[in-house]
Each structure stands twice: as structure tokens, then as C-alpha cells.
């Protein structure tokens, strides 16, 4: 039986349900929220409610937005003939931080994972196919993670898009900048060798 009041226990459980938050971290967060002045605590709760109420998927790329079409899709400065396919909205932020990519995105909201019972109908694949089928796309870049699910998703999508005669590419993987070859595993070295470029 818990020594905490029911409301506090519920708050701890809600924090513990967040990814990467263990029970002790959840307790610290719950106690921190309770220690906030009432105005700040209500503002925090209001921010969650506001985000849940106003944020939804862009009708074009499926990224999170508070308008019908996100700023990237509505920008005239973006190359709309190139689509970078990512698994999650946070992956878009990673690319945008680099300031090197000028195309548009498509967010799948997950990857294929038979063990987790996530199939093609559970992620935003049909929306991608519809975008490519509509024409005007010259390249689709597969930018899912280089793990089993990410690779399987990229392979599935490349086969699905083959009839549309668009160029489908995969991000190059290999030795990270600043890394030591001594600590690279065989799979990483193999990727680095097969993805080598002429200097």
C-alpha cells in the first residue's frame, strides 16, 4: 500500500508512463510540480491542454503543426520535389538543426514492427504513396533509423514506391565524425566501406 495520497500516486504514475522516466524520476517530477506556486502549476497543466487541443498533423507531410499545413510545406523556399521520410516528428528537428536539407518531409509516426504489432496500416504509409502518386516528386530519401525496424520500413517503402519511377535513396551510414576506428563494430565498418565516396 502506498504512503502517498491517491492524487499524488496518480501524478507519479502519469509521469512514470512517459518514455525514459523511471519511478524515482517520476516521484521527483511529481514533488516538483506540487512545490510550484499554484499559478505556475496551472500554467503547466494549461500548456499540456493547449498542446493537445491545438496541435495535429499537417495534411501534407503529417508533421505536427497548429495550422492545416505546416510552415515547411507552405514555404516557397523549400524543394518540394524531394521528400525525406522520417519515423517521428522529432527527427524533422534533427534535420532542420543541420540547416543542410532544403526539401520537404514525410513523417510516418512509427516504423514497421511485427513484434509490437505495428503493420503498414498503423503508420502514415498511404499518405506518402498518395503524395508520390500525385507526381512532381523526383527523389524520396529514406531517413529511418539504421536498426532492424528502420531498415525493414525503408525496404518496404522502396518496394512500394518502385512503380512510380522515383529515385529512392537511403541515408549513408558509417563512422561518425570524431570517432575512433578501433571502436567501430563490423556492421558500421561494412556500411562505411559500401557507402564510400570519391574524393
Structure report:
The structure is a single chain. With 199 residues, the chain is of the alpha/beta class. The chain has 2 domains: 6-54, RecR Domain 1 (Helicase, Ruva Protein, domain 3); 67-170, Dna Topoisomerase Vi A Subunit, Chain: A, domain 2. Helix content is 44%, strand content 13%. The chain has 8 helices and 6 strands; from the N terminus they run H-H-H-E-E-H-E-H-E-H-E-H-E-H. The protein has helices at residues 6-16, 23-35, 38-54, 71-74, 89-98, 125-133, 148-161, 186-194, and strands at 56-57, 64-65, 79-86, 103-107, 139-142, 167-170. It is globular and about 60 Å long.
Q: Uncertain spans, ≥5 residues at pLDDT below 50?
A: none
- Oligomeric description of these chains: single chain
Question: What is the gyration radius calculated from CA atoms?
Answer: 21 Å
Give the spatial strand order of the biggest sheet.
4-3-5-6
Shape: globular
Distance between the first and last residues' Cα: 66 Å
Provide the residue-averaged pLDDT: 89
Helix/strand class: alpha/beta
Number of domains: 2
List the helices and strands and how they pair.
Elements: H1 6-16, H2 23-35, H3 38-54, E1 56-57, E2 64-65, H4 71-74, E3 79-86, H5 89-98, E4 103-107, H6 125-133, E5 139-142, H7 148-161, E6 167-170, H8 186-194
Parallel strand pairs: 3-4, 3-5, 5-6
Antiparallel strand pairs: 1-2
Helix pairs in contact: 1-2
Fill in the keyword field for this structure.
four-stranded parallel sheet; Helicase, Ruva Protein, domain 3; 8 helices; 199 residues; alpha/beta; globular; 13% strand; Dna Topoisomerase Vi A Subunit, Chain: A, domain 2; 2 domains; 6 strands
Amino acid at each position: 500500500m502506498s504512503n502517498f495520497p491517491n492524487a499524488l500516486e496518480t501524478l507519479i504514475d502519469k509521469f512514470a508512463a512517459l518514455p525514459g522516466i523511471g519511478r524515482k524520476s517520476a516521484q521527483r517530477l511529481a514533488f516538483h510540480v506540487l512545490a510550484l506556486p499554484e499559478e505556475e502549476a496551472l500554467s503547466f497543466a494549461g500548456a499540456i491542454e493547449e498542446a493537445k487541443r491545438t496541435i495535429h498533423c499537417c495534411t501534407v507531410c503529417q508533421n505536427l503543426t497548429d495550422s492545416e499545413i505546416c510552415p515547411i510545406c507552405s514555404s516557397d523556399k523549400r524543394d518540394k520535389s524531394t521528400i525525406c521520410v522520417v519515423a517521428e516528428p522529432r527527427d524533422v528537428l534533427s534535420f532542420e538543426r543541420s540547416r543542410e536539407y532544403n526539401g520537404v518531409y514525410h513523417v510516418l509516426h512509427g516504423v514497421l514492427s511485427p513484434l509490437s504489432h505495428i503493420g503498414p496500416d498503423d503508420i502514415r504509409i498511404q499518405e506518402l504513396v498518395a503524395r508520390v502518386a500525385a507526381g512532381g516528386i523526383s527523389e524520396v530519401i529514406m531517413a529511418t533509423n539504421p536498426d532492424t525496424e528502420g531498415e525493414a520500413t525503408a525496404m518496404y517503402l522502396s518496394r512500394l514506391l518502385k512503380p512510380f519511377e522515383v529515385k529512392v535513396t537511403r541515408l549513408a551510414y558509417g563512422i561518425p565524425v570524431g570517432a575512433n576506428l578501433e571502436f567501430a563494430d563490423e556492421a558500421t565498418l561494412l556500411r562505411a566501406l559500401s557507402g564510400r565516396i570519391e574524393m
